[in-house]
Amino acid sequence: MSPSVPLQEMIRAIRSARTQCEERGVIQRECAAIRAQFRQADNGGRSHNLAKLLYVHMLGYPAHFGQMECVRMIASPRYSEKRVGYLGAMMLLDEKQDASLLITNSIKNDLSHSNQYVQSLALCTLACMGSAEMCRDLAPEIDRLLRASNSYIKKKAALCAVHIVRKVHDLGELFAPAARSLLAEKNHGVLHGAVVLIIELCERNPETLERFRKTVPDLVQIMKGLVLSGYSPEHDVAGISDPFLQVRILRLLRILGHNNEGASDAMNDLLAQVATNTDSTKTVGNAVLYETVLTVLDIKSESGLRVLAVNILGRFLLNNDRNIRYIAMTSLQKIVGTDHNAVQRHRGTIVDCLKDQDASVKRRALELSLALVSASNIRSMMKELLLFLSSCPAELKAHSTSGIFNAAERYAPSQRWHIDTILHVLTTAGGDVRDETVPNLIQLITNASELHCYTVHKLYRALLTDISTQSLVQVACWCIGEYGDLLLRGECQETEPVQVTEDDVLDALETVLQSHMSSPATRGFALTATMKLSTRITENVDRIRSIVSIYGSCIDVELQQRAVEYNALFKKYDHMRAAVLERMPVIEKNSPGHTNGESMGDAIKDIQPAKMKQGEPLLALQPANQVCDLLDLLGGSEETLQPSPATGPAVPGLLINTASTAGGDLLDLLGGLEPALLAPAPTVPVYENEGVTLTLSCEKQSDTGLTVTLTASNSTDSDISSFTLQAAVPKSVQLHMKAPSGDSLPARGTAKVTQMVVLNNPNKVNLKMRVRISYSSQGSAFQDTVQIDSFPGLNAAGH
Amino acid sequence: MQFMLLFSRQGKLRLQKWYVPLSDKEKKKITRELVQTVLARKPKMCSFLEWRDMKIVYKRYASLYFCCAIENQDNELITLEIIHRYVELLDKYFGSVCELDIIFNFEKAYFILDEFLLGGEAQETSKKNVLKAIEQADLLQEEAESPRSVLEEIGLT
């Protein structure tokens, strides 16, 4: 076995090892020697051995076998051994180790040692790693030392008490009286310790805080002494007298003055003095100023003082030192809610900090900029924020995008601006936006009907450049599907129109469909968009047909289902295709949890108004509604489509999703309708007045379903226009009205208007229907109501 | 203060003082990650960073990084001053201190730190007093060591 070497030689040996393996070898040999030495009786080298072990421990090697040696060395009478022993205890033992309890007795003895340096060791160790139990045991000792000892020990005892209070909150009461009397000491070290202790006590116990409020005048005195006194070489740091103590006292004043008028008044003058007199050329001066500003802003200070504080922060913002700028922004963030205008004055500097190289400064500047956005500065701020987004560090991107969206939503000066901003964000940072962005943007676009042409042009161009950002591609596909005809028309007021052919547009969509970069959701969007175009283009419908049939055998189940259904639309239900694929209506923004089922609360399920306009939006709504109702998404036919909460997809997705999940139902319903249309049904007149006749026939679809057909004719000599029918049914019955065949009744019964109503009566209640007829004839409006109590083909109970 | 770390530009730990109870494993993990984070920062960057839920204040002196973790309500600028004060103390004690001094006399660096900070807070704000106390303690240590060897020579342990 190689002989052990004194500490420095060992360190030299370890450092000269050229490889990790060699180093491990040296250390293993050394550790073995140390272990052997520990087992031997007391020899001269004990402290050296432990020191070696501590070095090895710092390098990262295990050293737990030294724990007991530490315990033994602490108990040794020799100072040199105690010193290293306590150091070892602080490094190797912590409160989680069992061995730490063994040193409690030694510490207790050493706390009353005749030599203050031994006492100091014990105090230091207790304050560093004392467990709650040890603290409880030794608290009375510490209290004794706080009262009667020299200043060297008092200052250490004070900080030891701080540790004890942090570990065992109840013991705070024990130290309060002693802490109070320590404030009268002259020694800076003791004062500093006392202030730290009082801060700790006041933060934990509001009663103690009340009691210590009386010390405010004393503290103000002490501070004044520090600030105004002459040069004191012992505590001077760059012209500031004991900045550490000043900062502590300011912090205590902050706690005592918070929410208390009296205390705050007492310190106003002092704070003003410190704020104006402190030299701010060096960091140390700024440290004191910073603490002063924090205190002024947190207590009930005079407005003049507050202005002074904010101005100091403004000066900090212009400081060359990056640290100071960072500090300033952190503080401004705290007061941007309360002193908004004051902070707004510095907006320019803050926005400049967005361009700083440092990531911490950037983060602070971003938070502050977002808080400073308002209706008046939205345009300029957004320009800066978008510029920032393009060079933003990755960890801040998600936060920036959501902040930008919030700001845009609250203060957008125009819809076009809003859409432009969102598109810009999607192009720059589309990968980091939240999921709701896509449906939100789509909702925004549908609302801005004058901008459809402009939007689709922009999105088409974006799609041609890059298809990697999923959110952008999804919105683009949706828009092209909806407004593709505007694209093909080749004219646009707001922006340069593109000259594209139908093939070009289909190419773009097909690229998205086939690309590996597209997520399954995106491909779904693209397929639906392609399908929608089949009603908006004229020449290439066959191409669409072939695309759709190819995807009928796609591996992705979602795409496959969609493709199969679209195929069905082409083949069996081609007559419905135009209606199904018509333009979407304006989507209203519903907050989550809001249902349209409120209408069910009414006693009589009141008019489910079917505005029988010929307007495009509603035609699409009818088939959508028939599907919605199947899923019990209660909505009046003029209400909006409720996004399905479970899947949360974009609204167009809903149309198709519900079609796919109720896929069978959709086809079944369509299948069910045909016989209803073809088979003759008994007709009963239900209303006749002023030449307008209404007849009714019904056909049972299922156990609870019923289709009612109302036919209206006009036997007068003048034409009737704006003919509308509205219907109401009992509460539990579901009703929806199909599109009427028309709204004008020509004179002398030359043509009729047919209105189909589908009813669902799951509870099999007595079926009644109230119909309101309104129309205009010869320039005047007419309205009438009729109640239908019996339906032909059903028995009296309406079953 | 929660902890203080000193490490070289190559990431080797030269001193670690922990004021919060953590297991060895956790300490190693924190050290490794923090050292990586700090070393990755460029020279002109801010001395403060938010890391996990703590505020980190660091400063580089020659080849050593001095890194402190403070609580959220602590004053960062005064922490920079505390770091500076510690460096001054080391400098005065070792006479123009360099990294090698701290490597070969690591226990002395700890003793000096323990005279300046206690339980994570500054205990003595006068440089002179700290150095005086260290001097006295060193004397005490020498006295303790030399009589022992004399006694051993005589044959009494």
From TrEMBL, chain A:
List residues of the GAE domain.
679-792
Q: Where in the cell is it found?
A: Cytoplasmic vesicle membrane; Endomembrane system; Golgi apparatus
User: What is the recorded membrane topology of this protein?
Assistant: Peripheral membrane protein
Main localization of the protein? Answer: membrane
User: Which BP terms does GO give this entry?
Assistant: axis elongation; central nervous system development; intracellular protein transport; vasculature development; vesicle-mediated transport
Q: Does Protein transport appear among the keywords?
A: yes
The yes or no answer to whether the keyword Heme is present is no
Q: Name one GO cellular component term.
A: AP-1 adaptor complex
Q: Which InterPro entries match?
A: Adaptor_Complx_Large_Subunit, AP1_complex_gsu, ARM-like, ARM-type_fold, Clathrin/coatomer_adapt-like_N, Clathrin_a/b/g-adaptin_app_Ig, Clathrin_app_Ig-like_sf, GAE_dom
Q: Which UniProt keywords apply?
A: Cytoplasmic vesicle, Golgi apparatus, Membrane, Protein transport, Transport
PANTHER family xref list: ADAPTIN, ALPHA/GAMMA/EPSILON
Q: Which family does it belong to?
A: Belongs to the adaptor complexes large subunit family.
Mind telling me what this protein is named? AP-1 complex subunit gamma
Q: What is the lineage of its organism?
A: Eukaryota, Metazoa, Chordata, Craniata, Vertebrata
Q: Which gene encodes it?
A: ap1g2
From TrEMBL, chain B:
Q: Which GO terms describe its biological process?
A: intracellular protein transport
Q: Which GO terms describe its cellular component?
A: AP-1 adaptor complex; clathrin-coated pit
- Taken from the record, one Pfam family name reads Clat_adaptor_s
| Membrane-protein topology | Peripheral membrane protein
Name the predominant localization. membrane
Question: Which key words are in the record?
Answer: Coated pit, Cytoplasmic vesicle, Golgi apparatus, Membrane, Protein transport, Transport
Which PANTHER family does the UniProt entry name for this protein?
A: ADAPTOR COMPLEXES SMALL SUBUNIT FAMILY
Q: What does this protein do?
A: Subunit of clathrin-associated adaptor protein complex 1 that plays a role in protein sorting in the late-Golgi/trans-Golgi network (TGN) and/or endosomes. The AP complexes mediate both the recruitment of clathrin to membranes and the recognition of sorting signals within the cytosolic tails of transmembrane cargo molecules.
Tell me what this protein is called.
Answer: AP complex subunit sigma
